Amino acid sequence: MPLTKEQLLAEVEDLLRTMPPRETICHPTDENLRWQGRVAAVIDEWDRSKAISLGGCLDKLHGIHAVDQYEGWRKLLVLLHQARYDLRMQTLGPVNVALLHGMVFDYFDEVRKIIEMAKQDLFFNTRCHDTSPRTGEIADPASGGGRIRQTIPRKG
Fold it and tell me: Looking at residues 126-142, what average pLDDT do you find?
């Protein structure tokens, strides 16, 4: 039975999380070879046409020249990220966004993008906002002082 796109996305993200260090990924250890075999299986399931380019990446990764090994590692990483973002666009959309302090306009732009991509319900975690202890409402910075009802029950 083939994996769903959500299951494939979880596999790709786990591959990226458990990727061997760049310094040792080209060593033919059992752990590295198992990980690379898993990469091949996941990429083949995601897009069979990409499995051909993966073979070239792995060949370079196991080459004898450092330049080839670096190119194989780089192309392998790009391929895994391509699979991740392709599957994310087809399933979840963006999972989270990181912004630097003070980037207010970027924050609201990212919130707008997430709202536009919502296919069903959309919930916001309001733990970081100024919450009124009496009403369970948070200040809405976009409305000039309006309030938004908190959708997640507070403990306490």
Answer: 50
